[in-house]
Design a protein that fits this description.
Belongs to the EamA transporter family. There is one protein chain. By secondary structure, the protein is mostly helical. The chain has one domain (2-249). The chain has helices at 2-23, 29-51, 61-84, 87-94, 99-107, 114-135, 142-164, 169-196, 208-213, 215-238. The longest helix has 28 residues, at 169-196.
């Protein structure tokens, strides 16, 4: 079952990343983050109320708050990198966030077997090889590489934090809700600062109308990302944290 949840996580995150990357071509990245996560907050809030998840509130939710603060930074860097560099480089490099949960798993005493070590090595080699042809093509901006590496570390940190934020299914719904509320708060504050400095909150072409037309896609990106976090957390609770490597390597666009 752990492998199935890990594969589901890979698929969901791949779809969310692909959809988010496409949306940022017309809509400012911060607006995509805030709008997509706002939809997730509404849906998760309804689920938490329906399942009585608020009864699971406890100190572990601070992990969810931390994940929510890191998440928007990682997503924004990732989307910005996609706008600056070729997808064939940004996507594989973004998967290097695997180092964070793998390292934490090792620190917590998890010891992978020979086959698991081999799997991790193959996955990392695949990441490098996937970006190789693109790196030999058109020059890649240094800023794109830097932003991708920051995003990778952030994604890995979110994975590790959300896996520690709950121990039950209802608690997981609450943790994901808290994470998304924090996402919207942090992303909204960043968007407000950006607009105050002369940045754009709406697309140049179509403005608010374009955002409204994109709501189904924004909702899909937000909900797919939430579902991916949930399936990863379940996988991490039923198997070793390092076992599946970073889910974003499987769907590499």
């Amino acid at each position: 079952m752990t492998a199935l949840f890990a594969l589901a996580t890979s698929l969901l995150w791949g779809l969310a990343d692909f959809g988010g990357g496409l949306l940022t071509r017309r809509t400012p990245a911060l607006t995509v983050v805030v709008a997509s996560q706002s939809v997730a907050v509404v849906v998760l809030g309804a689920i938490v109320v329906a399942t009585g998840g608020f009864a699971e509130a406890g100190p572990r939710l601070w992990y969810a708050v931390a994940a929510g603060a890191v998440g928007p930074v990682a997503m924004l860097c990732f989307y910005k990198a996609l706008a600056l560099g070729p997808m064939g480089v940004v996507s594989p490099l973004g998967s290097l966030g695997v180092a964070v949960p793998v390292g934490i798993g090792l620190l917590l005493g998890e010891r992978p077997g020979v086959l698991q070590f081999a799997g991790i090595a193959v996955a990392v080699a695949g990441i490098v090889l996937a970006g190789g042809p693109e790196l030999r093509g058109a020059p890649v901006q240094r800023q794109a590489v830097l932003m991708t590496l920051v995003a990778a570390f952030g994604f890995g940190a979110v994975l590790a934090l959300i896996a520690e934020a709950s121990t039950t299914l209802t608690g997981l719904f609450l943790a994901l809700f808290v994470q998304r509320v924090t996402n919207v708060a942090v992303g909204g504050a960043a968007l407000w600062v950006s607009v105050g400095r002369g940045g754009r909150a709406l697309p140049e072409d179509g403005g608010l109308r374009t955002v409204l037309r994109s709501l189904p896609a924004l909702a899909f990106v937000g909900l797919a990302d939430v579902a991916a976090n949930g399936t990863y957390s379940i996988a991490a609770q039923t198997g070793p944290v390092h076992g599946g490597c970073h889910p974003r390597n499987v769907i590499g666009w």
